[in-house]
Each structure stands twice: as structure tokens, then as C-alpha cells.
Design brief:
Blueprint lengths: L1 H5 L6 H47 L3 H11 L4 H10 L1
Length: 88
């Protein structure tokens, strides 16, 4: 019976313990950690991407707000303000 198991054990006993059956479980554990890290990185980039789009959209002023600021500064007259406001 020992002879049929010896077909699978080509190295010495220390080789079997270090690289044989134990090496596979270490590799599987490393792959699990690797894929968790990949998912965390993808999640972080996704969150950052969507947050940056919201920031850009809220920073823009509407044309009416720009016109109101120009009128408040006094750079345009009341008639210019009303005319431009009518076009908007």
C-alpha cells in the first residue's frame, strides 16, 4: 500500500512539507489576499471618481449668476442687465 503513495511523493519528506501539499494552501491564501486588495483598490478609485464629478458640477455658476454678479459690481448698466437677462 505504501508503494502506491510513493508515486506521488517524489521528493524527500522535508521537500514535501515545504513545497508539496503546504505550498498550495499558502498560494491560495496569498491569492485570496491579492483579490481582496484588488477589490479594495477598485472600490477606492470608483468612490474617488464619483466624488470628483459631483465637486465639478457644484462649482460651476449659471449664466444668470454671472450676470447678477456683473450687475452688482456695477460693470454693466441696468438696461444692459435687463436686456441680457431677457436673452437668457
Amino acid at each position: 500500500m505504501y508503494d502506491c503513495f510513493s508515486l506521488f511523493n517524489k521528493g524527500s519528506r522535508t521537500d514535501l512539507m515545504m513545497f508539496g501539499r503546504g505550498g498550495g494552501s499558502n498560494f491560495m491564501m496569498f491569492m485570496g489576499v491579492f483579490w481582496i486588495a484588488v477589490l479594495v483598490i477598485i472600490l477606492l478609485f470608483t468612490v474617488k471618481f464619483f466624488n470628483s464629478k459631483q465637486t465639478i458640477a457644484t462649482d460651476k455658476e449659471t449664466p444668470l449668476e454671472v450676470l447678477q454678479k456683473e450687475y452688482a459690481k456695477g460693470t454693466i448698466s441696468e438696461s444692459d442687465y435687463l436686456e441680457r437677462k431677457g436673452h437668457l
